[in-house]
Amino acid sequence: MKFQIPIGPQHPALKEPISLRMTVEGEIIRDADLRLGYNHRGLEKLAEQKTWIQNIYLTERICGICSHSHTTCYVQGVEKLMEIEPPKRGQYIRYLVSELERVHSHLLWLGVAGHEAGFDSFFMYTWRDREIVMDILETISGNRVHYGINTIGGVRRDLDEQQVKHILDSLAILRERSEYYQHLGTNEPSFVARLAGVGYLSREDAIALCAVGPTVRASGVPMDVRKDDPYGIYGEVPFEVCTADTCDVLGRTVVRIKELFQCYNIIEYLLKNLPSGPVAVRAPRRAKPNEVVSRYEAPRGENIHYIKSNGTDKPERLKVRAPTLGNYAATIKMLKNGFIADVPLIFAAIDPCICCAERAVALVDARSGQERIISMNALKKLSRQVSAGNARKREAEWPL
Amino acid sequence: MLTKLTHWSRLKSPWILHLNTGACNACDIEVVAALTPRFDVERFGILLKATPRHADVIVCTGPATRQMKDRLIRIYEQTPDPKFVIAVGACAMSGCVYRGAYNVLGGIDQVIPVDVYVPGCPVRPDAVIDGVVKLLNKLKG
Q1: How many Å apart are CA A167 and CA A136, to the nearest integer?
Q2: How far apart are CA A369 and CA A266, in angstroms?
């Protein structure tokens, strides 16, 4: 006997609207289906109407947790298009904020994982410590979540001695707390028992389904854009790619805790080797016609921005491939043959950021309810078919 | 007597439902941050509830996307009377940067009535607390 269970769009386990349809046999999930689009805002289209500078603040609002990831990814691409190089100090501050964001995102995730596993005191602990990072980010940028620190050609704010000292002091507290979490996450028997073996994703599947970030690293694949294709200053910063080979939610937890320590090391290195000089260079208003793909390792995995310019002060096309989208296929695989009770945990383990991932267009036939995803080319073909019979004005004069 | 009691208990334990209608997650984590030890809204008796049927206050974030519109109305109707809506963030107030996008309605008040607006992009947890307290004062008066 098979049942279908809908979860979402409004559901206690989900902080954001998404709909999951689960086909279950008793307690066991046989098939899962994701319904998207609740959070689709039409951001890529909006980007085409805004200037290069305005788009920094738009891309920042793709997602609230990895806001700096999206702006950095975008700004890196635009700098390549405009053929400018930000000064060293500007780059150091930019990637310092990146790493601080990774720390805040991983602490946030640890809390959510603890909450989904029924370990609420862990949630409260990590979120209390997350406030330390938020304070650091606030002193650097003036805002807690959308930092608005990136600009084309560098960063907007400089660091002074006092701030550097404040960050290093806070880092010592965070390091101490993270050691406690590492101990807790790997030794607390009930917590480990809840996470171990849940949401199994083998190494082969992780590669075949194009999983990214901590999800793929927890399946034993050392994949990290910072190492594989170093951007910015990552070529000169020493750090390790953290992996685990348990292929389950426990592995994903361990990877994230290990990454926290790597982040602390990187932040310390950046602050101790902070070069002097200006933080930004002047950027031109227009970019030559060209196209660029920019890659960035966000807390959740690889983030890709494709930007096309046409010689004006606005982009012709901005395409965002957020890390969560890369992990959806793997999530379905993880959910299959699992238990219903594990759904929130498995789904939380990819650290879903639904607002990042809402890009695809799905057409739903209003009469039959049939759904299909359509490509841009097929859409063009369809429109040509529809308009083929229409009378066309030959030799029409361009109105402008 | 009974009305006095319900009025008093309503003031002392406003239970909230957090609903994302297309927000960028920033306001959502700030709402959750307001529940955690640094800000701790539970001291006002505020509890985050999982279902609209238990909630008194709907805390709405996001600019209301077209696909969420029907769901938003449905959730509003599921909430028992008297119900209140707090629009959290610049998106929920007017659409913020998404204003003019094809899939965005531009504010919660385009769909359901709103009692309190909390500005900010994103709002600080302190502002969320301020908004809730203002709503409580509104109920008192």
Answers
A1: 6
A2: 51
pLDDT tens digits for range A307-323: 999 989 999 999 998 88
Q: What percent of chain A has pLDDT over 70?
A: 88
- Mean pLDDT score across all residues of chain A: 85
SS3 content of chain B, % helix, strand, coil (to 5): 45, 15, 35
The H or E element spanning position B15 is: strand B15-20
Name chain A contacts of B63, Cβ cutoff 8 Å: 41
CB hemisphere CA count around A319 (13 angstroms): 10
In this structure, the number of other CB atoms found within 10 A of the CB of residue A80 comes to: 17
The continuous run of DSSP H or E covering A222 comes out as none
Q: Write out the CATH class of domain B14-140.
A: alpha beta
Which residues in chain B touch residue A58, judged by CB atoms under 8 angstroms apart?
97
SS3 label, residue B104: strand
The tokens describing A115, both together, are 């909450």
Q: CA nearest B67 in A: which residue?
A: A38
> What does the pLDDT average to over A72-78?
93
* CATH T-level fold of A55-322+343-351: Cytochrome-c3 Hydrogenase; chain B (1.10.645)
Q: Is A64 in Cβ contact with B27 (below 8 Å)? A: yes
Tens of pLDDT, residue by residue over A4-56, are 888 777 776 667 778 888 888 888 888 888 877 788 888 888 888 899 999 99
How much is the ipTM here?
Answer: 0.90
Q: Is A355 annotated as a binding residue?
A: no
CB contact under 8 A, B104 and A42: yes
Distance from the Cα of A238 to chain B's closest Cα (Å) equals: 31
Band (pLDDT 50/70/90 cuts) for residue A377 is low
- Pull the structure tokens for residue A301: 């995995």
Cβ-based burial of A3 (10 A; exposed 0-12, middle 13-18, buried ≥19): exposed
| pLDDT one-digit tens code per residue, A204-254 | 999 998 889 999 999 999 989 999 999 889 999 999 999 988 888 888 998
With an 8 Å Cβ cutoff, is A4 touching chain B?
no
Query: Using one digit for the tens of pLDDT, what is the confidence trace for A164-176?
Result: 999 999 999 999 9
Does the annotation list A247 as a binding residue? Answer: no
Which chain B residues are Cβ-neighbours of A65 within 8 angstroms?
A: 25-26, 29
For residue A277, pLDDT beyond 50: yes
Whether the per-residue pLDDT at A66 is higher than 70: the answer is yes
Interface test with A, best of B49, B66, B71, B97 (most A CBs within 10 A): B97
Domain boundaries, chain A: 55-322+343-351
In terms of CA atoms, which chain A residue is nearest residue B61? A16
**CA angle centred on B109, ends B45 and B52, rounded to 5°:** 40
